[in-house]
């Protein structure tokens, strides 16, 4: 793995966005990484970008507008990033990427990306068990994306969450493992 990898964190509209700060902190301490964040409009309705900016050394991108050195963020961020981590990954963003949509900064950037893209899904159990969601997850894997192996309600102890997030340290180790393999 490269020293101080550059992580582009894609944050989407899942209820678990409430825990995002702990995951950012785990990624920073496990990887010693530099970080930019991009947020979907739905994610911004949960947490404003101005709140996230204080926890990283980089910027928070909320749309496709030029920002700082990035004149076309959805293209140039992909050159900058060693990996894109989508956390939490909503069912809607998973569907967008599985079908090649580019409707916001997260899905547009992923459609341009060559670096590894890692999804950590998070959604209610009812969504998780839908055939359409399963199809989309399978499609992501077939297309070469990394999707964190599903956690079910029994293993998380949360009866309502299906594709639940792993513990922050586990998520950070998973990302590190993929970065290490991809730089071999
Ligand atoms: C309170 C609330 C909680 C939600 N939690 C989830 C969730 O955990 N997972 C999910 O996939 N969608 C969840 N949604 C629905 C998404 O926010 C919605 O599908 C949205 O369009 C996602 O957009 P995005 O993928 O562009 O971020 C929730 C919506 C609300 C209002």
TrEMBL record:
Alphabetically sorted, this entry's keywords are: Lyase, Membrane, Transmembrane, Transmembrane helix
According to its UniProt record, this protein's enzyme class is lyase
| Single annotated GO MF | FMN binding
Q: Name one GO biological process term.
A: coenzyme A biosynthetic process
Q: Which residues form the signal peptide?
A: none
Q: Which EC number(s) does the record attach to this protein? A: 4.1.1.-
Query: Domain Flavoprotein: where?
Result: 6-163
Q: Could you identify this protein by its name?
A: Mersacidin decarboxylase
């Amino acid at each position: 793995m490269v020293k101080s990898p550059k992580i582009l964190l894609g944050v989407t509209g899942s209820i678990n966005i409430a825990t995002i700060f702990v995951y950012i902190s785990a990624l920073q301490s496990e990887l010693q990484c530099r970080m930019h964040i991009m947020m979907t409009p739905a994610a911004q309705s949960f947490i404003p970008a101005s709140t996230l900016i204080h926890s990283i050394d980089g910027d928070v991108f909320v749309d496709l507008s030029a920002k700082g050195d990035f004149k076309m963020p959805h293209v140039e961020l992909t050159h900058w990033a060693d990996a894109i981590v989508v956390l939490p990954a909503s069912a809607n963003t998973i569907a967008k990427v599985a079908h090649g949509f580019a409707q916001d900064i997260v899905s547009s950037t992923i459609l341009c990306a060559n670096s590894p893209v890692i999804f950590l899904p998070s959604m209610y159990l009812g969504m998780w068990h839908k055939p359409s969601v399963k199809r989309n997850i399978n499609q992501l894997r077939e297309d070469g994306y990394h999707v964190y192996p599903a956690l079910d309600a029994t293993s998380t102890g949360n009866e309502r969450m299906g594709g639940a997030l792993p513990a922050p340290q586990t998520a950070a180790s998973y990302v590190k493992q993929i970065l290490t393999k991809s730089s071999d």
